[in-house]
Amino acid sequence: MRQVLFDDLGEEVAIPGEARRVVSLVPSLTEAVEVSSPGALVGITDYCTHPSGLDARRVGGSKYPKVDEVIELSPDLVLANSEENRPEDVQRLRANGFPVWVMEAAPTVPAALGSLRRILTQALDLSEPDWLVTAEELWREVLPERARALVPVWRKPWIVLGRDTFAGDLLRRLGVSTVYSDHSDRYPRPKLDELRACFEEGRADLLVLPDEPYEFTSDDGPQFFPGARYALVSGRYLTWYGPSLVDAHRELSSPIDAALGG
């Protein structure tokens, strides 16, 4: 029996019975599915690194998956994300008769967890996983603001967190607002002089540097902002929505607390 559902973008997803063969084109969704339903994944991207020891066919990257290889796997369901995957790849898979669930790029932690709940309990017909409930409890509270951060996610060119981003909301719940949260773009591309001015003019008092998608390190990043307090954080904990959120609260708080002298 086919069940007809609707993904985050309102597109119809007709799943033929149970989704026993799943292809995930999003690393964080890969982790969420594997932890919640071990063995359901038959295809994943080259960037799907968690959990370790994944046993599924690699089908290229998120931006440029090998669609022909996805088709060869005859999946019952393909998982994608509106920000990470190209519409033309989603359309081609659907044109070949494969149901694709597109998760919207979540602007907040609750939105991401709500979307994950729908994927797991509706599309995959699973019971609500314990990690999801724990993550909701951990991230429900919003701490009082204690710092205002500049958060680059790329260099060459510089790209920073702007409005309505999952990572920005994650930091906000730890008491760290972001300088460009009211910008018209989700990921602005200011020049370096403008970024430095954020500290010189007192609009920022913390630099948060993740190790993905760009791998900032103690030797690559801080030197562009002399004298600024900085925290090196895991990009996975900052940007992935899924089981990693359970550890993310502790793993992000620790370097931020250290940078702020807490």
Automatic annotation (TrEMBL):
Residues 38-194 form the Fe/B12 periplasmic-binding domain. Belongs to the bacterial solute-binding protein 8 family. Keywords: Signal. PANTHER family: PERIPLASMIC BINDING PROTEIN (PTHR30535:SF35), VITAMIN B12-BINDING PROTEIN (PTHR30535). InterPro entries: ABC_Transporter_SBP, ABC_transptr_periplasmic_BD, Vit_B12_bind_prot. The keyword Signal applies. It comes from the Bacteria. Pfam families: Peripla_BP_2. The keyword Signal applies. This is Fe/B12 periplasmic-binding domain-containing protein.
